[in-house]
Amino acid sequence: MPAEILQVLLVLFLAVVFHEYAHGWTADKLGDPTARLAGRLSLNPIKHIDPIGMIVVPMVLRLLHFPFVIGWAKPVPVNFSMLHNPRRDMILVALAGPATNFSMAFLLSRLLVLSPNAFVAQTIQMGVLVNIIIGLFNLIPIPPLDGSRVVMGLLPARAARAYGRVEPYGILVVLVLMNLGFFNYIWLLAVIIAITFGINPV
To answer: What's the mean per-residue pLDDT of the chain?
Structure first.
């Protein structure tokens, strides 16, 4: 069990740290240095740790034998008004996180053939699945998830502002959907994608 928990924490830390770094790096390249100036443009996990989202929640999900593991880091600060083209660049910054997770999943799947033992192979398989799940999860268009930033960038300004007012209640919507079993479909889709990468994660 300790080894299994270590696997979960390792792959989750890597997945969410690179996810947040991608947001900050992209925003910095598009004109907003907020993350860099705040010291968050870093791959140091300590800079991004949310104790609840990166430790407690994934450990509880694993101990309860949930079919998926999810977690989150402290969001990287982004000042959208400082971006060169705020509406367009908001979409690019939002998509950078999930795109990084999908890229990591693909690269990890290619490394599987080099794994020296079963434990490493299992860790890589888990890393593929966790990255896909986090990428898919963040594309859900519920504020403040990344998918909602894409929607806000596409909506007319007035509609985007109205849509953004949902953000304080977004976590409640996510919890309701989780309770209704919606995230089982995300897990299933993640498994299908992982299989296309040549990984059998189940």
So the answer is: 87
